[in-house]
Amino acid sequence: MTTASKITLLRVLMIPVCMAFLYLSGGSGVWMFAALAVFVLASLTDFVDGYIARHCDQVSDFGKFLDPLADKLLVISVMCVFCQWNVMPAWALMIVLTREFAVTGLRLVAVGKGNVIAAGWSGKVKTASTMIGLCAMMAFPGIAWLNWTVIAVILITTVYSGIEYFIQNWSCIWN
């Protein structure tokens, strides 16, 4: 297993720790900042493992599978807690989940036809803005306008990147 994949696996292992701290926090206090610290560290590993994989020739099939999965699990786990706390509406989470399943399905169809759909720029922007936005929501809990601004940014980048993936790869479906 490569160093990059070990770092990605570490991100996956941080998810239950982050969630435990969120639940211990009850939505505020020192445990919320502990959850934020773990989330920030986990988010940073996304950039570190990618950098190491590309620059140290450690790109692997396992890493290509695990890295985007780890990103999705990390952000969706926090969004689920926010939904449970009524900080984020379930319909917003459903839009995010729908995009993730749709793009994953598109990638599966493409692979079946011998094509690989690499992560696009808009998908990377979506991931980064989602991670930063969730950090803001944890750092400043209970600020309604901030929560709605973050939710709007998450939804705009999610929908845009999903549409872009389908427009750029439409031939995978119809050919």
Q: How many helix segments?
A: 7
The number of E-state strands comes to: 0
Q: Gap between N and C termini, in Å?
A: 36 Å
Largest sheet composition: none
Low-confidence stretches: none
The level of helicity is over 70%
What is the residue-averaged pLDDT?
A: 91
Gyration radius, in Å: 17 Å
Strand content: under 5%
Structural class: mainly alpha
Helices and strands, in N-to-C order?
Answer: HHHHHHH
Oligomer type: single chain
Overall shape: globular
What would your notes on this structure say?
The protein is mainly α and 175 residues long. It is built from seven helices and no strands. It has helices at residues 3-25, 30-55, 61-84, 90-112, 121-139, 144-168, 170-174. The chain is globular and about 50 Å long. 30% of the residues are buried.
In short:
It is built from seven helices and no strands. By secondary structure, the chain is an all-alpha fold.
Lay out the secondary structure:
Elements: H1 3-25, H2 30-55, H3 61-84, H4 90-112, H5 121-139, H6 144-168, H7 170-174
What are the main properties of this structure?
about 180 residues, mainly alpha, 7 helices, about 0% strand
